[in-house]
Hints:
homodimer, alpha+beta, Pnp Oxidase, Chain A, UbiD C-terminal domain-like, 3 domains, six-stranded antiparallel barrel, five-stranded mixed β-sheet, 14 helices, elongated
Amino acid sequence: MGYYADFREYLDRLEETGRLRRIARTVDKDRELHPLVKWQYRGLAEEDRFGFLFERVTDGNGRPCNGQVASSVVAANREMYALAMGCPVDELHERWSHALDRLIPPERFATGPVKEEVHRGDVLLEHGGLHEFGIPFATNGWEAFPRVTAASCITRDPDSGRLNVGMYNSIVLGADRANLRTARHLRRHWEKCRARGVPLPAAIAVGVPPVLSLVAATNVPQTVAEFDVAGGLIGEAIPVVECETSDLVVPATSEVVIEGTIPIDIMDLDGPSGENRGHVMPGHWVHAFEVKCITHRRDPIWHDVICQLPPSESSVMRCVNSEGHVTALLRAHGISQVKDVAFHDCGSAKNLCVVRFHDVAGVRTPNSKVWHALFTVMSVDAAWPKIVIGVDEDIDPWDLDSVFWAVTNRHQPHRDVKIIQGRSAGLDESVGPRDVPGGIRGYPTSLVSPQGASAMLLDATRKWPNPPISLPRRDYMEHARELWEELELPPLKPKVPWHGVSLGHWPENEAELVALSEAGRMDEAAARLLRMGRHLDGNGDED
Amino acid sequence: MGYYADFREYLDRLEETGRLRRIARTVDKDRELHPLVKWQYRGLAEEDRFGFLFERVTDGNGRPCNGQVASSVVAANREMYALAMGCPVDELHERWSHALDRLIPPERFATGPVKEEVHRGDVLLEHGGLHEFGIPFATNGWEAFPRVTAASCITRDPDSGRLNVGMYNSIVLGADRANLRTARHLRRHWEKCRARGVPLPAAIAVGVPPVLSLVAATNVPQTVAEFDVAGGLIGEAIPVVECETSDLVVPATSEVVIEGTIPIDIMDLDGPSGENRGHVMPGHWVHAFEVKCITHRRDPIWHDVICQLPPSESSVMRCVNSEGHVTALLRAHGISQVKDVAFHDCGSAKNLCVVRFHDVAGVRTPNSKVWHALFTVMSVDAAWPKIVIGVDEDIDPWDLDSVFWAVTNRHQPHRDVKIIQGRSAGLDESVGPRDVPGGIRGYPTSLVSPQGASAMLLDATRKWPNPPISLPRRDYMEHARELWEELELPPLKPKVPWHGVSLGHWPENEAELVALSEAGRMDEAAARLLRMGRHLDGNGDED
């Protein structure tokens, strides 16, 4: 088979590529684990990040946890994301934008490794229930409970029978009690159950084939099942087994599966919980989760994802997902001038979007193709993106230096910026203060109110021919690069542009002077230029 | 003495710090030199850049040049800039904002090293005139002539007798003929000479004490002399000697001095010339420069600066200068809430400005202190900055990821952005097409015209209390950092914030839950949270 047999095989592959570090020292999951891993998101360049495998983990009381903890192993950077997906980095968007073209349903097996240990009924808590595993605290000092971060939460639509897999956060409130910060599809399943008066069965799978985690974290239309999309992406069916306490299925090779129900008669107040924009969110209402059964592999590897303030593993994951999603949206609208869509970690993978165009530069302003694309990007959601910037093909949309070179040189604010109101606030703290009662944060209360959410569109494409980029021409830079290597100077990671290019405005006279000079006739070029000088009369204007 | 005796001693110091590389291989100054050095600005991180000393240089015909060429040695990055200034990096702004508080005039000597060789009169061209030195081409393929990039051009005000030193670009048009792309003060000296009917004597000094290059590249008020500012900055007088053909003085230790005159009866058409926004600028009118005498040290070291498309040595130099200049401006206006002013290379050191405030966060919007400061920054010049962004103290204004995290989380476009028109275009190509006749690029021709320059001000400071940053609290991160070191993980370069902080909104209930959990009473915290849950009735709204 082409893809990884299971999460463990993926970790082996990660280690082979030098991107996994085993930590043999005992680590306290409640005080040390996340702070340690988070340092790499605050102190290492993206390309230098790696995954951690904690071999010996204890809880805050020094009690050893069963098995190991793998943290930051799926998407510490885009190279790791691609490894988890099983394709080269530059194929990621192509894969995502065709994700729905081929669906492969999961293959059902009678049993699998996840059934090696089964705790249910009277002995459900014999091994500690949820406390058996190394579930870490995420944002120490601001959160009060361990956080399940890489939960693939599986539920079934009571009407259609279709399975949903979503990646939701959950905090552990007891050996058999957690909550679940849900959204979208699971929420609709729950509402249907509530109308029927029955609780919603759910299974939380941890340590699944990484492609399923990636699919679970993205926006898949309600009409398709994530299992089928994940299978299609890797070209083979995900092996699944049936749950012990419901008719749900879970990946057969899952490290841990927590089966339970989501009650319909209570809602939990969430504990203080960090969110991906970068704040600790106080007091939201979330679903309760009651544990009925736990199955797991022997020596389970608990899978943990680093989320919250960007950059994080979660923001890398969601950047790639947002890019694939918006690329597909623009294609569906037939906008063929879009070359790339880039989302940025600093915008929490949703709020800062750069669209790279081809074949629009130099067309006189206003270019309705550009504006149509920018407004279409805004249609992806009421709450995001907040800022969308259009750039030309010669700009690297993932490099903010390149983007803001274009912004300072190719746009005029009064002409090329549009601000739109009527946007949804989401978790944007800038929309209004939290301590104003009456829901003022949600939507503008009046046209002159300072509250309410808005968005900015900015066209930083070239509007007409420009003079050449002031870097040496490509042939000179290529020769100099050979010289650079020959001199054994430090390794280069070239940024675009790395050579000058004509951008449409290059007067014949300038070209001729350069050609004369390059032909070894510099004196002739100088004489010609000097003949073009201007004689000034006594006191007249000279310019 | 504290400061470097001369340019050579500075290069020795640079080499001692590991920031100078000697290139022993023969290099063609007309085809290879700039492309080679420019690679480091396209392919190395700023902190990894270094200076080059080319020991063997030929021209395009293979003819060896006299002496060596030092390129990119003064400001390849801010550390080198600080070394050239003779102070730590974090003192640069303080130095600049007090630059005018202490002035030390130059000290005049009868002779100095720059007089070791004197070529004038009949034997002016005996050693080739300007062709004697390794003056490189800057933007091969788009420029036709060698470019003098580190010229400290000295002239005297015919009225006041005050000396001016400015760093201007110049291209070599013959053994005794160049031009000069001037601005500001030199231009006024020339106009005064023209009114009197006499040419303006000028001396171009190359390879001067680096502090003088830095001062020559910044905006010093017309009423003070750059020599005196440079002396004050380093705490000692710059040694000078008199010119051979005029009453001008030049640094006694200059590597090369080109004495000449600027005629008042002709203007040159500039050859195609790269500029610092990043384009090759066609056809401007510039001054002529006629060489009368050349003096130089034995085995002269030609000093070359890497300019044009940012980032470049020139953009690093001008960023620091712009920051000092605008900081002093804001102080002069009594705006005490400004902590830092940051300019960015990608905005060519002028066009993208970030102001970091203290003591403004959480004050309800609109904060007139912030807006007063942003508008005051705009008053620095009619043409720059183009974009100015205000951020809080917890944001790193030099890190675009940090700035755009603030922009996506702390501003609402409709409320916090102001666009102003009536700005000057400068060299901004986005203001209008070059091929429209009639000066349409310079200024808006009508209120509805797409032409004309504008600027954007953006307040990305917090307007009210926000929830805490979702990173572990400082004590956890500090402990984890010790763990990181103990585990010998890769070296960290921490970004801010590297730990969670309260931003004013942290409800008592959340704090208590966390305190209980940290005291080892997690079960109690969970019980308390669960008691706060909400019981739902049959079909009612639950949120």
